[in-house]
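Technical note accompanying the year-one report. For the benefit of new consortium partners, we illustrate the data format agreed upon in the data management plan: each record pairs a sequence with a structure-token string. No post-processing was applied to the example shown here.
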Amino acid sequence: MKKITVSLLAAMLAMFIAGCEPQTSNIDVTNDQGKAVMALDYRDFDQAASKMVQSMLASGALKKQGGGRYIVATSRITNDTMQRIDIDQLMAKIEQELLNSGQVVMTSAVGAQDSTDPLVQDARKLRDSEEFDQNTVAAKKTLLAPELSITGKIFQKNISYDKGMQQVEYYFELKVADLKSGLRLWQNETLIGKRGSSKSVAW
């Protein structure tokens, strides 16, 4: 009887603790009213990517003289923050919006390691293979070289704002260069700033 009572109390205690825990809920990513955090979250990535692309498109740098679309390659994007930022996540948003603009096409043949598709080169290794119909294998001199490149950097500044408060600034920098002439056609810096308790972790 004593063992049953102890087990029952333990079960009731576990139910009580579980009831006090925050409930899991889905995030409305189109209208997220959740409180801000000191580190970068998906809302910051969306904001920075949208601002960068809007500036890029509004500048006219991507409008090709004579019509047609530029071929763009993603170059190195440096993370100089205290966070382990997934650069691919940010660039995927930027590349997606650029593609949706209809002004450019992105190349998967060359560029930063994570922006290329290894199958582009692997498919060309099938030449002279007896297992494949050579009429269906990519011929030589069919790849198109990129005309423009996107490179950039993300860096962070932590500032003591007030007693018990801190200010964290995240700078997103992107540049677009003409690969043939080496001339820079566009450059932009977007700032995401946050203020909060100095006890909050910013990484």
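Partners are asked to follow this layout when depositing records. Residues 39 and 202 are 5 Å apart (CA to CA).
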